[in-house]
Amino acid sequence: MPDQPYLLYGAYASYYTAKVRCYLRKKGIPFAERLPSDPTFREVVRPTSGNHRIPQILAPDGEVIQDSVAIVDALEKVFPDVPAHPSTPCQRLFVHLMELLGSEGLVTLAWKHRWLFEENIPFITRDFGRTFQPQGDDQALMKYGQLIADRMTSYGLPAMTPDVQQTLDRQYIALLDRLEAHFIDHPYLLGGHPSQADYSIMGALHAHMGRDPAGLRQLQLHGPRTLRWVEHMLTPEIQSPEWFDRDVTYPADDAIPDTAMVILTWLADEFAAPMVCHLHAFASACESGAVRAGEVIDSEHDQPLLAPQAITVNGEFHAAHRAQVYAVWLAQRFQLHWAGLSPHDRAAATPLFSAPSLAALLHAPVGLTLERRDQRFYTQAD
Predict the structure, then answer these.
(1) Which whole number is the average pLDDT over 354-369?
(2) Residue 3 — pLDDT band, cuts 50, 70, 90?
(3) How, if at all, do strands 31-34 and 6-9 pair?
(4) Sign of the CA dihedral 333, 334, 339, 341?
(5) C-alpha–C-alpha distance, residues 287 and 308, integer Å
């Protein structure tokens, strides 16, 4: 174990920092947290990674790792205790699917929920301002925070209408209803053991909808057990006082709790369709030669969008779908795990995909295998 702590560069308002922070705490990895305003971030971390996005980790040996998934993958090799990924096939598939649907599926809901509810704006603007001017007065916080707010709301945010608000409320309360049912009998999504499945939904449930006033109000009203889960995910203890005598183990016999499958299926029903389109568009780009083996995909961007592709998915024609390469990379993690299973393990795991929305992900084309190196995506060579 390193003598010096890791340094986590992030922010409490940051979706992806929330995932890494609770991972580090549950793993017992020594770390200290710093803001992006820290001179070391500007002078060392950003030049080393070539990337401004948070979270980033500065390791004791000087290595810099950016991206929440990449950070967990790297640290799992150094700190194997309390593993974030189960070793058994069904549970591992579940975790990879939650990594995709829980993190990337909920990000749009969390983003809209933050910026469309007016009661959030004064709080979150000052909170972002504090990230860059920690000791600033309210005027300074609003000035710096508005720069971030303007950028975050420039990505095609829809107008808040009664229909939009109804959809946001419906989705958030439906998610909380399912989590509440699960947390009656389980401290984590996979029984008594925290996993990447839990860390993946902390971005939405803590950084956004567990701190912003509108989301926190609904969490307190509709999700008291989920609120306690969020609170406990921020502590270093594995089991909370409510579950002090629960063994820190994944369920026996590679089982997945029924209530956890209800959560996963709901996430797929709500959010899998765009990801299926990303996979089809990426495969189309590979087939056409727009993406070739052994090459970097867009050397100028760390999370590129591909050129538009005409695709047909489930009988529906999409004239110009642009694949999000980051989402494709995450989806390939479960696709490749599935491909490597023995016939026996595949047969055991097949019931995970009984819902049509999950089956569509399973049967979507893989395309060329992606690798992430040096903050860029590459396709594997033939």
Answers:
(1) 95
(2) low
(3) parallel
(4) positive
(5) 14
| Position 145 pLDDT exceeds 90 | no
Q: Is 44 exposed, middle or buried (0-12, 13-18, 19+ CB in 10 A)?
A: middle
pLDDT in tens, 82-137: 999 999 999 999 999 999 999 999 999 999 999 999 999 999 999 999 888 888 88
Q: Is the pLDDT of residue 1 over 60?
A: no
In DSSP terms, 40 is beta-bridged to none
The residues, ordered by sequence, that sit 6+ positions from 71 with a Cβ below 8 Å of its Cβ are 20, 23, 55, 57, 65
Interatomic CA distance for residues 337 and 347, integer angstroms:
14
Tell me whether the omega of the peptide bond preceding residue 55 falls within 30 degrees of 0, making it cis: yes
In the predicted model, what is the mean pLDDT of residues 258-273?
97
DSSP string, 11-46: -TT-HHHHHHHHHHHHHT--EEEE-TTSHHIIIIIH
**The pair of three-digit structure tokens given for residue 317, joined into one six-digit string:** 């024609």
Strand blocks (E) in the chain: 6-9, 31-34, 56-58, 64-66, 296-297, 309-313, 316-321, 370-373, 376-379
80 C-beta neighbours (distance < 10 Å), count: 10
| Full DSSP string of 213-265 | HHHHHHHHHH-HHHHHHHHHHTSS-SS-GGGTTS-S-PPGGG---HHHHHHHH
The answer as to CATH 3.40.30.10 being correct for domain 6-78 is: yes
Contact 55, 16 (CB under 8 A): yes
Question: Is the pLDDT assigned to residue 17 strictly greater than 80?
Answer: yes
Indicate the domain borders of the chain: 6-78, 123-157, 276-379
- DSSP labels, 98-119: HIIIIIIIHHHHHHHHHHH-GG
The rounded distance, in Å, linking the Cα atoms of 182 and 189 is 8
